[in-house]
């Protein structure tokens, strides 16, 4: 049938055209792989970070990739870094650049205004490229501001692309200027949109600086409190082009680039495996179940992370448990005033909140424990069968006392 | 993650990232930022599940399915603010109509005019070369639904691309 034949012909041509179009998209694969790895690790940590609550919780997510392996590589004790300012003479790369340091630097460089939602990633973990994010409000509405640092091969394609204005057809934008600075650095100031097709009118303004030695500093800002998914909060991003230029050219960022370990030629993901193996979800749940009170039936076991849904006959209740190593560096964030220290030095605290998924009526009880060697067991129970689910009962199926008994059980020591 | 597994994962991610990114660029009709985001999300999810993913017959195909679902989930989340447009986006107008643009851009614009699920069907069927049944599996849809979407999307693309596609593809 001629029509059918024509259809097939069109389908064949469409396949060719798709391949032609698709094959022209080229990405920085190493960056995608590194980003994927970081997200995977973060997914594991996300709930614990949220438990901390508020800005501190977000900051913890930001440095999350580094938390499991705070000393980045060898399983040796971590050097104390209570205050980075006290270590001015350190050799670059010997001591990692911390997320807190990045946040402090960005806050200092921003003009007067309110700064919130700080997140940062230093060079402590497996991620090679430091990054800091804040929401900055000069009084006219919040806007996200990000700084990322990178090292590029001087004169390489990557170096050139970082400061070459994009094609206006492929990436529609309002303005883009690429220029050479007196010191030989190349600077691109770009004013465009988060979504090139402008289906949402979030503006993205960026400044990219590449120095002759290959230090790459990239600053982005948006007229919304987040890169994606937040409503537009102001007509333009908070920093003017001149302010953006001042921020990107601040010498301190170049110094920080020197903290990035030199490329070893290996893909990022294999460069820094977890030196401490985290307990498998299955083993954690196998340990948890016998510790549950009698009468609590396990109706569901987690596969993607360690949780169980239990039912004591009064409704289903989600129980989340995490067993982690090397968490000593965040003790201050997790165990504030009102936390208790046991005779053996173990810190214990409990929290009662409404979860972190904005579910109306959600009740979550958490007991968090940290042994002196950084070994942490944290267990939460909800009055609902899932973090996003509507409450199925008034209170969680486990009391705070029961949660505490579970978290402090010597059974967990086998994971230490 | 055990060292051996971590290595396997790293090898897999490095080998598939480029292809996933290209797929994501087609799914997002050329929104490279969103595409990067989706690929990282996909690789992140695969990381968390690697123990099981590594044992499936076709981890690459599984990753593609994860990507497609991540894309559709993203579209659902934003569905209140975005709708598939009936016209070729304005961008084309300033260039004197689709005929003056390279086929690649015309095609991306045409894809952006399709509803997200139709776009996913087109990408899976004609870029990934999946069968109707495999596409249906990936989309959690019935084969009949995939066929219907496919016919509709092809008709729409034909209408939008028409002779262009023939000329460029033949050259």
Automatic annotation (TrEMBL), chain B:
Gene3D superfamilies: 1.10.1740.10, Winged helix-like DNA-binding domain superfamily/Winged helix DNA-binding domain (1.10.10.10). InterPro entries: RNA_pol_sigma-70-like, RNA_pol_sigma-70_dom, RNA_pol_sigma-E_actinobac, RNA_pol_sigma70_r2, RNA_pol_sigma70_r4_t2, RNA_pol_sigma_r2, RNA_pol_sigma_r3/r4-like, WH-like_DNA-bd_sf. GO terms for molecular function: DNA binding; sigma factor activity. It holds the Pfam family Sigma70_r2. GO terms for biological process: DNA-templated transcription initiation. The keyword Ribonucleoprotein does not apply. Residues 106-157 form the RNA polymerase sigma factor 70 region 4 type domain. Keywords: DNA-binding, Sigma factor, Transcription, Transcription regulation. Residues 24-80 form the RNA polymerase sigma-70 region domain. PANTHER family: ECF RNA POLYMERASE SIGMA FACTOR SIGM, RNA POLYMERASE ECF-TYPE SIGMA FACTO. Belongs to the sigma-70 factor family. ECF subfamily. This is SigE family RNA polymerase sigma factor.
């Amino acid at each position: 049938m001629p029509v059918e034949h024509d259809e097939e012909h069109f389908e064949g041509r469409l396949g060719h055209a798709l391949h032609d179009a698709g094959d022209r998209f080229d990405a920085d694969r190493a960056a995608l792989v590194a980003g994927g790895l970081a997200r995977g690790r973060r997914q594991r940590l996300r709930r614990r970070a949220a438990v901390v609550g508020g800005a501190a919780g977000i900051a913890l997510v930001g440095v999350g990739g580094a938390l499991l392996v705070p000393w980045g590589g060898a399983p040796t004790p971590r050097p104390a870094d209570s205050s980075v300012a006290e270590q001015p003479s350190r050799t670059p790369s010997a001591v990692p650049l911390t997320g807190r340091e990045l946040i402090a630097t960005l806050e200092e460089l921003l003009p007067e205004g309110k700064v919130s939602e700080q997140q940062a990633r230093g060079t402590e973990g497996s991620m090679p490229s430091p990054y800091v994010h804040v929401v900055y409000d000069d009084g006219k509405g919040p806007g996200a501001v990000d700084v990322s640092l990178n090292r590029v091969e001087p004169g390489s394609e990557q170096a050139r692309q970082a400061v070459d204005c994009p094609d206006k057809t492929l990436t529609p934008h309002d303005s883009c200027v690429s220029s050479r600075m007196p010191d030989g650095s190349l600077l691109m100031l770009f004013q465009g949109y988060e979504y090139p097709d402008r289906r949402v009118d979030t503006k993205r303004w960026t400044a990219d600086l590449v120095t002759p030695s290959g230090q790459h500093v990239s600053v982005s800002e948006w007229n919304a409190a987040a890169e994606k998914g937040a409503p537009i909060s102001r007509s333009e991003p908070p920093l003017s082009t001149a302010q953006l230029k001042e921020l990107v050219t601040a010498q301190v960022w170049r110094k920080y680039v020197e903290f990035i370990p030199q490329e070893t030629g290996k893909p990022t993901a294999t460069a820094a495996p977890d030196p401490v193996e985290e307990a498998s979800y299955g083993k954690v749940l196998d340990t948890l179940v016998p510790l549950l009170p009698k009468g609590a039936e396990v109706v569901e076991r987690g596969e993607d992370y360690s949780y169980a849904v239990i039912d004591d006959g009064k409704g289903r209740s989600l129980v989340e448990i995490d067993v982690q190593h090397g968490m000593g560096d965040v003790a201050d964030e997790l165990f504030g005033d009102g936390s208790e220290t046991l005779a053996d030095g173990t810190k214990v605290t409990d929290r009662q909140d409404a979860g972190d998924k904005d579910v109306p009526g959600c009740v979550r009880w958490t007991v968090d424990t940290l042994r002196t060697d950084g070994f942490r067991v944290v267990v939460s129970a909800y009055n609902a069968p899932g973090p996003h689910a509507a409450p199925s009962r008034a209170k969680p199926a486990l009391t705070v006392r029961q949660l505490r008994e579970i978290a402090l059980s010597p059974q967990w020591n086998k994971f230490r | 993650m055990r060292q051996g597994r971590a290595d396997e994962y790293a090898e897999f991610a490095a080998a598939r990232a480029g292809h996933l990114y290209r797929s994501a660029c087609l799914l997002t009709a050329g929104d490279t930022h969103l595409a990067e985001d989706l690929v990282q999300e996909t690789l992140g999810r695969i990381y968390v599940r690697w123990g099981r993913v590594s044992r499936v017959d076709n981890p690459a195909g599984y990753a593609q399915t994860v990507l497609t679902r991540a894309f559709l989930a993203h579209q659902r989340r934003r569905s209140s603010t975005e709708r598939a447009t009936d016209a070729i986006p304005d961008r084309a107008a300033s260039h004197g109509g689709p005929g003056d643009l390279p086929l690649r851009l015309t095609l991306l614009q045409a894809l952006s005019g399709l509803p997200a699920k139709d776009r996913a069907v087109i990408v899976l069927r004609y870029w990934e070369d999946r069968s109707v049944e495999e596409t249906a599996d990936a989309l959690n849809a019935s084969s009949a639904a995939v066929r219907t979407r496919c016919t509709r999307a092809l008709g729409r693309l034909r209408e939008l691309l028409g002779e262009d596609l023939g000329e460029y593809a033949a050259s």
